[in-house]
Amino acid sequence: MDLIKQILGNATVLELVFILVAKAFEVTIGTLRHILVNKGYRKQGAALAFFEITLWVFIASRVIQGIDQAMIKGVIYSLGYALGVYFGSMLENKLAFGKVLIQINTKEELAGIISEVLRDNGLGVTTIAAKGKDSPRVVIMTYTNRKGKDGILNLVHNIDNDAMVTVNDVSSLSGGYVSSWKRVGK
Fold this sequence. Notes:
By secondary structure, this protein is an alpha+beta fold. It contains six helices and four strands, in the order ααααβαββαβ. Strand 2 (126-131) and strand 3 form a beta hairpin. Helix 2 (13-38) runs antiparallel to helix 3 and helix 2 (13-38) packs parallel to helix 4 (72-95).
């Protein structure tokens, strides 16, 4: 019992839970803010920054106040930080901001079918003749929202399960045909 009192010091379990949850929430917001700004969503990033720093001021002051009598506050604060990074990256993955370039390297005989299916699904498609190690190939390129990426990959793999597919984030894009381009206050 004395060991627990020594570790907790004057901090209550409720205070430690508050620090953990609030710090995790604050860092989740910060992780999202960072990703939004990097993807070009500056207004949304600035709005999140306001809430992030407001939370930080109150949480940090709570931890610093009396940390010499309850060092566990620092450990809980650090754990909240780690959880916030994890939850923030998971949330961003679910929201899937931005565009991607999908490149499909496929057999020449399947390229027409894949291109037609992608076009039938409203995508702009560019094809380039290529030479593979053993046979002629075609590289198919299309841009889409990151959120719709998995659906496109499923379409491609249903036609050619051996296709080599690469997906790259796109930082800027202009010209050409891009399907369902929705701007979210960028």
